[in-house]
Amino acid sequence: MYPQPELNRLAAYKAALRRDIAFRRAECGRAAARVTAPLAWLDRVAAFWRRLPPLAQFVAAPLVSLVQRAVLPRQKLLGALLRWGPLVLGAVRGFSAAGKSRPHPAGSADGQH
Question: In sequence order, which ranges of the chain are alpha helices (DSSP H)?
Fold first, then answer.
C-alpha cells in the first residue's frame, strides 16, 4: 500500500512527535508543581491546624497574630483598605443610589440635563 521509504519517514516523524509530547508533558508537570507548591504548603498548615485541639486553636490564634506582626513588615496600604474600604464602598453606593432616585429637572423632556 505505502512504499517502504514513506513508512520509514512516517515512523521517524511519529517517534519525534512522541518525544516532543513527552517533553512537553514533563515540562507542564514541572510548571504545575511549581505553581501549586504554595497551595500544598497551605494544605499542610490547614491539616496541622485541624489536628490541634480546640483549646490550642483558641490560644494559638492570638499568638499567630503577634508572630505575624513581628515577622512580616507592616502593610499600611492593605490595612487602610481593609479598615476604610467598607465605609468608602457604602458611601459610594449611597451616592449612586441617591443619584438614581433623584427626580429629573422639570425642563428636560428626555431626563438629561
Answer: 4-51, 54-71, 76-101
